[in-house]
Amino acid sequence: VTEEPVLLAQLGELREQLQRSHEMIRALIAGEVDAVAETSEGEPALLRQAQAALRESETRLRAVFDGALDAMLIIDDDGRYIDANPAALELFGVTREQLLGKSAVDFGEPADYDAAWAAFLAAGQAEGEFHLVRPDGQRRTLEFRAKARISPGRHLSSLHDVTDKRRLEEELRQSHRLESLGRLAGGIAHDFNNMLLAITGFATFVHNELPEGDPKREDQAEVLRAAARAADLVRQLLAFGRKQMLTPKAVTAGQVVADVTGMTRRLIREDIELVVRHGADAALVCVDAPQIEQVLVNLVVNARDAMPDGGSITLDTATATIVSRVSSPEAEGLSPGNYCVISVTDTGVGMDEDTRSRVFEPFFSTKERGESTGLGLATAYGIVKQSGGHIEVESALGRGSTFRIYLPVCEVGVQTVRPMSPAPAELRGCETILVVEDEPMVRRLAVEVLRRHGYRVLEARDPGDALLVVEQEADRIDLLLTDVVMPRMSGPQLAQRITVSQADMRVVFMSGYVDDQLTDDRSELLVAKPFTPQDLLLAIRRALDG
Ligand SMILES: Nc1ncnc2c1ncn2[C@@H]1O[C@H](COP(=O)(O)OP(=O)(O)O)[C@@H](O)[C@H]1O
Ligand SMILES: [Mg+2]
Questions:
Q1: Nearest bound ligand to CA 314?
Q2: Is-above-0.90 flag for pTM?
Q3: Alpha-helical regions (H) of 280-364
């Protein structure tokens, strides 16, 4: 109570001070700063300081806004852009003048934008994706976060470009999908392979035993033709599933392309021009050349089909170095290293986005059923991936297509192919052969084929069984014909065990599976499933005589 007068006096003083500064601020706002500075004696210095501080903080704010890496937009209540930083202008591909006064609708946002804008104002903030169509036609995917009312009637939105990120994610999804489709197709094809082997083999026996002129002979030939078509389909599925037998060897890109052009001139029509460029013909790649040539033929045939009114197909070679996945997003899935790029470009109808994203799927086709299988690009994909490479497509509707195949460049001094010994004249023999195969159909076929051609045949249904047979067998075994993948012990392991006691025994492997890695340093031969009786007999004779 006693201090009351003192307090009152202080309060009065404060009120006066407040009053003075209030007036000063009013004067500032009204732009009368200089006038006030001159009239209010004793205080101009303070005022000038305040003024400078204000300018400095404005400059600082502007610098932050202009220097920000993310694009920022200031938007008014109607959703119109009233300020933008340089990052935003670059992102939108416009000048400041072109942007101000526009709204998201002008850059491709859908018509229901009004509702979204109202919801944003009500919620006070929003985030999401924005699909921008730039004046130059480029499409970009932007991620944005917006905050309403950073000052009265002013809203801030910050955006950044996620186009490449989204594309990579999509490609990854795509390659995972192809991967699992491939596993499925490869698995089915592997089982069908064995069945077809038996069908073809036994049907051949029947066919050959029917006398000439027997009407059943033609029926049997029909069975064989159908089986051959089925085997062809199975081979393509194996290729897509990366389960094909590939025999890589060093070859130049130029050689591969030259072989293909020889073949394709016959495949394309006269109204289509075939142009061959020689960007990097000397690049050495380590591939199964006939398989890569098949890939290129598939691409050329597709290019031809895409140009019903004629045009040109360009084959080109180039080299590329993948430093890291981040710096080379165009070749997703490739490990860093040197690559040879073979490209096939056409001036045809091109593809829309939906087609482009599905072309490598097996059985995907936009062509009439009957004239297409939809397996051309699926097999191309499988073969290229299995070769350690990558295939990609660039295309737009009405603007043609370019397919690029990346193949790893050869390390120096790899693989040379052993020359094949000449085909033996006689397929028969009388040597002793041990057949080891866990698939009964395939085993029975192999045993049958060999017996019918004079061989003495022992059989075993697995490696354990085989070792027992070897133990009980008094005579020497001339040749071991074995499957590669079997339960408990692999074919190569079995061969090694037996050769301990039978050093000069020859070995032939039967396999339809690439995962069956074989060491290359022994004189072993391989028959790829599905094989015909002829294939098998040839391989056996080669091994015995070689
Ligand atoms: N060069 C190309 N230009 C336009 N579309 C293409 C091209 N290559 C492939 N396509 C599209 O990809 C699909 C799949 O091709 P593919 O796997 O070879 O099967 P198919 O040729 O039997 O239809 C085609 O049906 C076509 O729609
Ligand atoms: Mg095709």
A1: 1
A2: no
A3: 289-305, 353-356
